[in-house]
Here is the input.
Amino acid sequence: MPKSVLEAIKLGLWEFEPPEVETDQYNATGAMPGTKDKLAVMAERVQSGLPLWHPSDRDDVESPDPMPIAPKPR
Here is the structure.
């Protein structure tokens, strides 16, 4: 079973759906959309098998920076 979408693609498993992860298991980011920082966070998430988006991620210039949540150990 692949750990991430990237692994599934490499294996040709186009119907792969990653398991759901509670939002307290990973941090939201205050990086602005479209920036290198935001893309780096998203790349790290997909490589780790986490969801691409966190509901508290900053989504525009006027949004406040989210308070970081310490992830629980896996």
Notes: The chain has one domain: 21-74. The longest helix spans residues 36-47.
